[in-house]
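Thread: "does anyone have the structure for this chain?"

Original post by V.I.:
We have the sequence but no experimental structure in hand. Need at least a predicted one for the grant figures.
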Amino acid sequence: MLIFIKLIYHRLFIMLIGMVFALNTHANTPSGTLKRNLLHDSNVKVNERYTFSRCNAIRKKPFLNQSKKKKILLIGDSHGCDFLNIVKENNFLQNYQIRMRYIPYQCQPVLNGKGGKFVEKKDHALCNNEARTDSLMQAKDQMKEADIIIFAARWKLKTARILPFTIKHLRLKPHQKVIVIGSKNFGKISTRHYMTMSPQALKQVKNSIDPEVQKINAILRQRIKGRLSFVDQSKLVCGSHVACPVFTDNLHLISYDGWHLTPAGARHIGKVLFQRSILANL
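Reply from O.Q.:
Generated one for you, tokens below.
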């Protein structure tokens, strides 16, 4: 009887080892790696920290006048932070000092101080809080020092319409270069659905670009001209004004929430923007 019990325990132990081995083997298959990447790339809490960490480090910091490097002032919201991550992930613009003036999406980069009519009533407290937000008026002196000013934001329709007027009234000097980065959107990110798809199917996934983003980019394409340079981010990255791939070539999510970039997404987009736009000349 004792021998029989020992034999059963031995067989159960062998089965358990086999199950553990099978699970570990599956986790190391291409399918297992893809699922781990999906879970990591779609982790909003982790990726939100990534979005803001670099731009928080240079917000409102002065330029170093003793440095021989040219000066770039980046003005924008969390999409401006995305642009900074694009630069840093690809080691671009190393011969420049880069500083940031952070103006949240709710407040918008407009002339009239804290946003005025461009700000919804519920956001007045945020936009009036100078410790948390910035404005073009606050940034005016630092703008005068910059060789290049880059506007990168999630634009609102009414802000996009008046952006050339806004920039004109900043009275920038003729030698100062101004670049406007268009809005981007990758539609609704559905990780649970992607988990059930094959790698081949994932490579074909395209989401519709938010209709308002399409309108905003159409306005910017039409109005940003002359001495102002426009980088049509959606067109360059997506190859279309209406739909955009969701995955990089090696099947990492480009965006974790449809608006902001993963590290892999920043690397992917950077290579496109800095090869196919005026950014290649910087």
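V.I.: this helps a lot. Residues 2-30 have pLDDT under 50 and may be disordered.
O.Q.: and The beta strands are 70-76, 96-102, 148-152, 177-181, 206-208, 228-231, 243-245.
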